[in-house]
Here is the input.
Amino acid sequence: MLAAATTFCQPPPIFASIRLAPPESGIYHAAHPDFGITADLVSMNSVRHFESLARKRIVWAYFSWHWKDGIKFPSDQCRALNGGGVIPLVGIMPWSTLRQGEAEPIYTLDQILSGDFDSELIACADEVRALGFPIMIEFGPEVNGSWFPWNGAWNGRDDDTYGEAGRPDGPERFRDAYRRLITIFRSRGADNVTWVFHIAAAAAPGEPWNSAAYYYPGDEWIDWIGVSVYGVPDDNGEIKSFDEIVKHIYPGICALSETKPLAVLELGAPECPAKAGWMADAFGSINSGKYPRIKSVAWWNKIQKSDGSPSGLEIDSSPESLAAYRAGVESFVDEAVWSTKNPPFRALEYEPQSPINNAN
Here is the structure.
């Protein structure tokens, strides 16, 4: 079946379109302060604690917006961060179970494309518009990782029965769902959103159809492109260096767009003998200018794993790690630069393609 085309009526905007621009020089200092196991317990105390450890303010802070209790925009959390001078980066997690590695039963890409949640999303867009200050939003973090149900593995994989011929269905459904979301927000005058596209450094599965290029909504939809980079100790306690990870993926990320700024949206490594050295090496590479498109870096400072056990990811997991972090971000930028230039945007009428017939 085909979903009917939907036209979203646009109310008068209450302020000029505004986006987070890259700094004129340098790199933004940002973070994922510890907002609890599910990363949604927003607290300025956590932000200030992180900043005091780092000895530097942050430009933006990430928190998760899970849909497990319904699609209700977290305005209060955004106001709390904005009130403390920090830009909220809202990570939309379209799942009801919070369980990785399985299909989502309610908030599927199919249903989003069919318009099943348009009324809720319109209400959210109106709330964002009414905030009166700029925020950032990313939909479906680490989309090229099959641990999340918005990955193509759960939404058609490499089938070619939906949308454009020659494009794998799973990634294309995500691309179109993200476009639909942005269409709704823009059509409601929510022009205070900087839209972020987020992939993992290591795609899973590592198959051609799962390439980031197939998921990317396009330059007219996205303002920043970001990646998660983690140092994971092997059995000998050694960690693959930041350079070893990034040098292989950086050209492909740059190829997604010639102009969009890049961000390391999640940077982290657990405490181990090699952590402080890994951090120093990572920040050395970033600050060297070897990756000039990278304009923002955020450390994932989550203290506990999802099972409640210690993560060891915090920047002060050891005195040596804390010292490495402080030295690494000392020259980072802690004040935002804004752009009021309207991005190019096609018609507000959006016609989704045929919904998927099954989850796998």
Observations:
- Confidence is low (pLDDT under 50) at residues 344-360.
